[in-house]
Structure formats: structure tokens, C-alpha cells
Amino acid sequence: MNKSQLIEALAKEENLPLKKAEEVVNTVFGEMEKALIRGERIEIRGLGSFKVKYYEGYKGRNPKTGEIIDVAPKKLPFFKVGKELKERVDLY
Amino acid sequence: MALTKEKLINSIYHQVGLSKTQSRAVVETLLELIKKTLESGEDLLISGFGKFMVKEKSARRGRNPQTTEDLELRARRVVVFKTSGVLREKINAPAKDSQ
After folding, report:
1. Contact B25, A14 (CB under 8 A)
2. What CA–CA distances, in Å, run from A24 to A8, A80, A85, B52, B56?
3. Which candidate from B18, B33, B75 shows the least CB-CB separation from A92?
4. Is the ipTM of this complex over 0.85?
């Protein structure tokens, strides 16, 4: 499923005009994006939490050529699945 | 100060102009749609943000690192998140003046 399908599903489920549903979805992911850019945590009960992890730079190697390369330090969001979602997805 | 569901509901209320009750309902419905999609085994792609993917993990032998006890890890289905390249660059861009 992609964002426009999610917007359509939300509009249908909540009886909202498509335009409003689009604003809702954009606001939700927009706020989440802004929080991560600020380096802030996100905690949505049932869905999961995000935090920005910092990774030190290191000397790596291109596995194909063996060439040594500098890997720059970076920040990456890390998503931890919430309890409810985790249990619902894992149906084994 | 984490971003929570309450804060998302507030943002919808202020930015989209729905009532407080409606704002709460749409956020709850949106979260439920996301969970339902992943529960059905379908990935969710939010362009510019990232991709929530459902991965099948096969059973493997594991070990409790504290007790070194051997154990069997059963097959599982898990959700992983991959950040979009666009968001990744924004997060790593030199910080602008902080508010």
C-alpha cells in the first residue's frame, strides 16, 4: 500500500473528502518527519517508537574491489515495533 | 519530549480544522489502517518518509548470551522500517538555527 491508497482508505472509512484525508495523512507524517529532524523521539502506543541513532564513522571496504573507504558518521531513524503491532503481525 | 498520539491529534485539530473529536477519530482510524495493512502481510510505502516492511524470519538456533543456554527461535513475522533517502538526507543535513 502507498500513501495515496492510505489516503483513499482513510477518506472512505471516516467519510471525509479526499482532500481532508490527504491533509490528515500529510500532517501526521509531516509532524513525524519534523520530530525526527529535530532529533526527537516519536512514541505511538500500539504502533511503535522511533528514535534517531547516531552511528560513528568508520573505515570500510568496498567488498567488490577491496578498496578502503571512509564511511562518514551518520544519523538514522530506528523504528521499534510496538507490542500490539508486533503481536498482530507475527501470526505464527 | 517525544511526539505522541495526543500531539498528533492536536496538530490535526490546529492544521486541518477538524473538531477535537473528529481529529482523534481520524488519527485512531489512520493508525488502525496502518496496522491492518501490515497485519495482512502487505508493506506500506510512505514516499518521502519511509517504508514499513513485513519480513518472514525462519526458525534458527539461538543462544542466551547471558546464560549461554541454547534455544530454538521459532519462525516469526516482523515489521522493519527503512527510512526514505529523502528523509535520511534531511536528518543528516547541517542543523539550521534551532528554534
Report:
1. yes
2. 11, 23, 21, 19, 31
3. B75
4. yes
- In chain A, where the domains are located: 1-40, 41-92
State mean pLDDT over B86-98.
80
Owner of C-alpha cell 491529534? B9
Which chain B residues are closer than 8 Å to A36 by Cβ?
Answer: 87, 91
Class of the A41-92 domain? few secondary structures
**DSSP of A59-83:** EEE-TTT--EEEEPPEEEEEEEE-H
Please state whether the predicted TM-score (pTM) of the whole model is above 0.90.
no
And the C-alpha cell for A70? Answer: 571512509
Residue A23 CB burial class (10 angstroms; 0-12, 13-18, ≥19): buried
